[in-house]
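Project standup — Tuesday

K.O.: blocked on the structure for the chain from last sprint. Re-posting the sequence here as requested.
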Amino acid sequence: MIRFGDLTRLGKVMAVLVALAAVIIAVILIGRWADGLTAWLLWSDESRLERAAARADYAEVDAANRRTEVVWLEKQQADVAEATRVIVRTVEITERAQALSEGAADATVEIDPGRVDRLRDADRRVCELDTLACTAAAAPD
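H.V.: unblocked you, prediction finished:
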């Protein structure tokens, strides 16, 4: 058997290189085998990959939810804009009708009390038939 001390200088360098190569190969093989053993550690590649995949999945779901929210907010905005146009137009027409009625030739003529009673009865019947057509403020006395 050859002892390490019996080797020449070149032989010793070669023996060290072979031993170093054997240690490196052993470390690589043990590392691959032990890779599954360290996967649960927070700093392992598998854990980081799982966290990154979870963040990517959450980002996709969040983006889809935000797109849906934007669509509904745009629809709501259009509905509010349409309702605002209707309200503004109703106010304009009401103001114009009120101004025309105040300026009418018979605006100061008193209405016959019998006719007033008939109009109130008619209003009351309309409210009885369609309760949604009458509000508490507009209900006849």
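K.O.: great, moving the ticket to review. The chain has one domain: 4-102. The mean pLDDT is 85.
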